[in-house]
Amino acid sequence: MADTLTHPASENKEKLWNGGKSPFKVSYGKLMMWYFLLSDAFTFSGFLIAYGTLRASMPTWPVPDFVFSLFPGLAGPEWPLLFVTLMTFILLASSFTMVRAVQEGHQENKKGVVFWMILTIVGGIGFLSCQAWEWTTLIKKEHVSVTVNPFSAHTESGVYLEGDGHGIKEGDTFEAGDSYLIHKHDGEWHNLDYKVTDGPNAGQVKQQSFGPKAFGALFFFITGFHGFHVLTGVIFLIIICVNAATGLYVKRKNGYEMVEKIGLYWHFVDLVWVFVFLVFYLI
C-alpha cells in the first residue's frame, strides 16, 4: 500500500521542471534579451506613430531631398540623401560582420569572433561619426533646433523680390510645394519677401514663414534615441570583444552565447534604423 502511494509522487517529482531546463529551448539570458527587444520595439513604434500623426496634421512639411542634400567635401546641396545612404550602408554592413562573429562563436573560434567583432565596432563608430556630422550641419549651418525649423514648403506660387545670397536670386520663381530654407545672417533671421502670382492673393507681397516646429524636435529626439542605442551597443561590443580576446568565453563552452545575445541587440538596432530611414528620409 505504501509503495502504491509513494510511487506516483516520486514519478511526478521527476517530471517537474526544476529551472535547469528552459521550456522554450533557449537560455534564460537570450529569453530576457528577446523580452527587452520586444518592449523596446513598442517604444520605437510609439515614437514613429507620433511622428506620422504630427506630420499628417501639418499643412506643409520639409521635403527630405531638400533638407538632407549635403555631403562632406562636396559643394552645393546637390546630393539628395547620398550621405544618409552611406550611413545606412555602414550600419547594415556592421550587421553582416556581427552575423559572422556569431557564426565563428558557434565554431568556438576565438580569433574569428574577435576579428569580426572589431569590424562591427568600427562600423558602429563610423555610423555615430556620420550622425554627429549630420547633426552638426543641421544645427550650426542650417540653424535647425527643437523649436526653430527654417525648412518649409511654399503653399503658393510666386516670385522672389530679393535674394538671400545662398542660391536664391531676385526674380527667381517658385512653384507651390517647393521647399525653401530661411538663412541666418549675423545672428539674425532674414525672411525672403516674395510676390504671389497665382490664386486669389495674386499680386500681394508676403514673407516666408518658418516650417513646423515639430520637425526639428521629432528628428533630433528619434534619431538621437536611436543613436543612443547604437552608442550603448558599441560600448557593450567593446566589453564583450575584450572578454572574448582574453579567453573568458572559451571556458564556458557554450558557443559564445554572450556574443549571440549582443548580436540580437545589434540586429534590432539595425532594423529600427531601416524604419527611421523610411519615415524621415524617404517619405
Characterise the protein shown here.
The protein is α+β, with helices and mostly antiparallel strands and 283 residues long. The protein has 2 domains: 24-146 and 214-282, Four Helix Bundle (Hemerythrin (Met), subunit A), CATH 1.20.120.80; 151-207, no CATH class. It is 57% helix and 8% strand. It is built from 7 helices and 8 strands; from the N terminus they run H-H-H-H-H-E-E-E-E-E-E-E-E-H-H. It has helices spanning 2-15, 28-56, 64-67, 82-106, 110-141, 214-245, 257-282, and strands at residues 151-153, 158-160, 173-174, 179-181, 184-185, 188-189, 193-196, 205-207.
Largest sheet descriptor: 4 strands, antiparallel
Number of alpha- plus pi-helical segments: 7
| Mean pLDDT reading | 85
What is the spatial order of strands in the main beta sheet? Answer: 3-2-7-8
CATH topology of the largest domain: Four Helix Bundle (Hemerythrin (Met), subunit A)
Approximate helicity band? 55-70%
The radius of gyration computed from the alpha-carbon positions, rounded to a whole number of angstroms, is 27 Å
End-to-end Cα distance: 77 Å
Oligomer: single chain
Backbone structural class:
alpha+beta
Query: Tell me, what is the CATH class of the largest domain?
Result: Mainly Alpha
